[in-house]
Structure formats: structure tokens, C-alpha cells
Amino acid sequence: MTVDVGAQMRKGVVEYCVLGLLSREPMYGWRLAESLTDAGLIASIGTLYPLLARLRENGWVSTFDQPSESGPVRRYYRLTETGIAQLALFREQWAPFALTVSSLVREDRPS
Q1: Which of 42, 57, 63, 99 is 20 to 30 Å from the Cα of 18, by its Cα?
Q2: Residue ranges of the Transcription regulator PadR N-terminal domain (predicted)?
Q3: Residues contacting residue 98 through CB under 8 Å, at least 6 positions apart
Q4: Buried b (16+ CB within 10 A) or exposed e, 81-99
């Protein structure tokens, strides 16, 4: 049996990638979905909204509505103080974790 390792890795980090995008600026769902889809982190916009709902339930993001120049009102997402703290914790732990994993799975042997 072959396991889609990439899917498992994406599942583990996509929430933090959303937080990272929102740390730059508030975004509406479609724009977030485009960024994540282009990066290969989600398959479609349909997978984003349940994730955003979880982030809201956790208190990591909040929403506000803003009129759009090209259509209906858009719901924007932004980080809360809790979300900022959670992203900072992830950033703190990510680099050492990634280095450890890289050192364990690399093909060459250390001398």
C-alpha cells in the first residue's frame, strides 16, 4: 500500500500557512484559496472553509465584511491576538523540527 506522504504533511501545516498569510494582511476566502491552491497546499476552495471555521472556533481568526468594488460584500479573515501567538509558537518550533526531520531522512551519511 502506498501512502500519500505529501497529503499528510500538508494536512499538518496548512492551518499555519493560513495564519502566515493572514499575518501579512487580512484576506477574503477566495484570495486565501488561490494562494494555497497555487502553492499546492489545498485541492480546492471547498477544503478551505471548514479549515477557516476551525480557526475561528479556536479563536485564532476573526472576520469582518467589506464591500467589494467588483461584486457583493466580501468576508475577510484576520488574525486575533491568540492567532498571532499561535503562529509565533509554530514559527519557533518549525525550523528545529524541519532540521531534525531533514537530518533523519537524508540519503547521505554524516561523517
Answers
A1: 99
A2: 18-88
A3: none
A4: eebeebbeebeeeeeeeee
Q: Is 35 left (phi over 0), alpha (psi -120 to 50) or beta?
A: alpha
**What letter represents residue 33's amino acid?**
A
Whether 26 is in a domain gets the answer: yes
**CATH number of residue 51's parent domain:** 1.10.10.10
- Cα–Cα distance for residue pair 111/108, rounded to 1 Å: 9
